[in-house]
Amino acid sequence: MKIIAKIFFLIAAIVVLNSCKARYSLSGASIPEEAKTVSVGFFTNNTTLGAPSLSQRFTEKLRDMVSSQTRLGLVSRNGDLQFEGYIADYNVAPIAIQSTDLASKNRLTISVSVKYTNKFDAAKNFEQTFTRFTDYSSTESISAKEPELVTEIYRQLTEDIFNRAFNNW
């Protein structure tokens, strides 16, 4: 009799878990079951500084993150879930002043404005600016360090955006 009760409980648990609306990926992302596609629009560079490739690099990084961490098909536009926006700020500033007019460290800060649209649940839509930075020695030139610094900042930004959209963080 105990075996029948255990089997019944197991079947009931499977039925209950399969009836949930949200699907979960290996990354822990909560994605509506109805959602099949995602679109990531081109993020333009609305700043006056930075390399011309900033827009392309960020857009590709976000597309890669979404396609590798979810089961959604990537489409060029009008996805069930949509990301669009622009690079809002690119700034280099001294942060650690060691003596008069001399900084020992500089900080690169990048901000990205994102609009996320979920066609199935408007409560999950958002418009938000995400900001990340990284520091580097003032003895190094920004042009030499920029590719490495931008790569790290973009990693952090795309994780923040992904978590906000799919993990409600």
Helix and strand layout, with pairings?
Blueprint: H1 2-18, E1 22-24, E2 30-32, E3 37-40, E4 44-45, H2 54-69, E5 73-75, E6 81-99, E7 102-118, E8 126-137, H3 142-166
Parallel strand pairs: 3-5, 3-6, 4-6
Antiparallel strand pairs: 1-2, 6-7, 7-8
Describe this structure in words.
With 169 residues, the protein is of the alpha/beta class. Helices cover 34% and strands 37% of the residues. It has a single domain, classed as Lipoprotein like domain (Double Stranded RNA Binding Domain), CATH 3.30.160. The protein has three helices and eight strands. The strands form two sheets. Strands 3, 4, 5, 6, 7 and 8 form a six-stranded mixed sheet that branches. Strands 1-2 form a two-stranded antiparallel sheet. α2 runs parallel beside α3.
